Amino acid sequence: MRMNEEQLNLVKHLLSDIKERSPFYREKFKDIDTSAIVDQGTFESLPFTEKADLRGAYPLGIMAVPESEVVRIHSSSGTTGTPVIIPYTKRDVEDWAIMFERCYRMAGITNKDRVQITPGYGLWTAGIGFQAGVERLGAMAIPTGPGNTEKQLQMMCDLKSTVICATSSYALLLAEEISKQGLKDKIHLKKGIIGSERWGANMRKRIAKELGIELYDIYGLTEIYGPGIGISCGQGFGMHVWEDYLYFEVIDPVTLKNVPDGQVGELVITTLRKEGAPLIRYRTHDLTRIIPGQCPCGNRFHRIDTITGRTDDMLKVKGVNMFPAQFEEVLSKVPDASSEYQITIDHTDGRDVLTLSFETEVPEDKYSTVENQVLKTFRALVGPTIEVKAVRMGTLPRSMKKTARVVDNRY
Ligand code: ZN
């Protein structure tokens, strides 16, 4: 995507004093003449910033303002090792809320809505970002946070929540619970803002159908403000991203070169206005593509496609690279297969065996028919032969957090 003039000016401004402001970039760019970055081409010669770099700067090495200007910190959800701490200034917090309010407006949410926020509050950025956007918009926030499904459903019915914010797996869990408890007539939901993990077309269809709502994908990551840096519009193709605050690139995760618009690769983001912890060419490891051209909705900002996976989710089995999104695509093409699946990889008798387990509603004596359909579709779309196993609905694990769909027993 072409760097526009406004972005180029902001980049130049950012680079003009980054080495003075940030001890982290002073070290990282010590051999780089930042004044030589004058256009998109020279910008693309700058090194990437990796999550590991940020870990190395723990706790506050990436802070680029005097501490007196920092009003809050967040921490990325590191399941292993050192967390990453991101300091925010007053303006960073405001800018994030401005972007989030835009997201809600894009989804047609107004100050008449009641927004139930199920993502977590605390060190990581989810809940509080959703909340700040609601308050800026003037809608009513119902900050339930995650878990306690009974209380969640009680609030949803009694307070007549019109919008639910959730991860896709938690939205699915709530939808299943509403259907199980026969509460469908008691809920008033119209819209769902769904974020923070990949989800396939089948899962989307199930949530939308069971809850009877319109769904919007929201995007973001703690290192870059948090959720709310982009959202899908009514057209449903990809997510508009706020290019007046951020600059987006897509690179080939192997060659690390920029790819043309339309081609899938890894999303790389530069913050254009962030004060507390500016990041330059930050590798998100999220796989997506820039959708070329203008959206039929008329919004001026470009779109990135739904996130199809993580570069580190890439599975190499029998020498073939595969992404979970490909499995989702296969399942979405077989009507009797549901969206819930698990991938297990074992190493037996000297070879890798990949088993795709998926849930289905068909009776057990029809399992082999569905299994054959899935296998045939997989061979046609992806290639290698795998083991396929149908299981009863509700057997595979559901989670309130990111669902672990891949179990690799090889290592
Ligand atoms: Zn649009």
Secondary structure elements and pairings:
Elements: H1 5-21, H2 23-28, H3 40-43, H4 51-56, E1 70-75, E2 85-89, H5 90-106, E3 114-117, H6 126-137, E4 140-142, H7 149-158, E5 163-167, H8 168-180, E6 191-195, H9 201-211, E7 214-221, E8 226-232, E9 239-241, E10 246-251, E11 265-271, E12 282-288, E13 290-291, E14 303-304, E15 309-310, E16 315-317, E17 320-322, H10 324-332, E18 337-348, E19 351-360, H11 367-381, E20 387-392, E21 406-408
Parallel strand pairs: 3-4, 3-5, 5-6, 6-7, 18-21, 19-20
Antiparallel strand pairs: 1-2, 7-8, 8-9, 9-14, 10-11, 11-12, 12-15, 13-14, 16-17, 18-19
Q: What labels would you give this structure?
A:
single chain; 411 residues; alpha/beta; Rossmann fold; GMP Synthetase, Chain A, domain 3; 2 domains; nine-stranded mixed beta sheet; four-stranded antiparallel beta sheet; binds zinc ion
Folded structure, characterized:
With 411 residues, the protein is α/β, with parallel strands linked by helices. The chain folds into two domains: 89-311, 3-Layer(aba) Sandwich (Rossmann fold); 314-408, GMP Synthetase, Chain A, domain 3 (2-Layer Sandwich). The chain has helices spanning 5-21, 23-28, 40-43, 51-56, 90-106, 126-137, 149-158, 168-180, 201-211, 324-332, 367-381; strands at residues 70-75, 85-89, 114-117, 140-142, 163-167, 191-195, 214-221, 226-232, 239-241, 246-251, 265-271, 282-288, 290-291, 303-304, 309-310, 315-317, 320-322, 337-348, 351-360, 387-392, 406-408. The strands form five sheets. A nine-stranded mixed sheet has the order 4-3-5-6-7-8-9-14-13. The protein has a four-stranded antiparallel sheet with strand order 10-11-12-15, with no helix packed on it. Helix 6 (126-137) links the parallel strand 3 (114-117) and strand 4 (140-142). Helix 5 packs across helix 6 (126-137), helix 8 packs parallel to helix 9 (201-211) and helix 10 (324-332) crosses helix 11 (367-381). The relative contact order is 0.11.
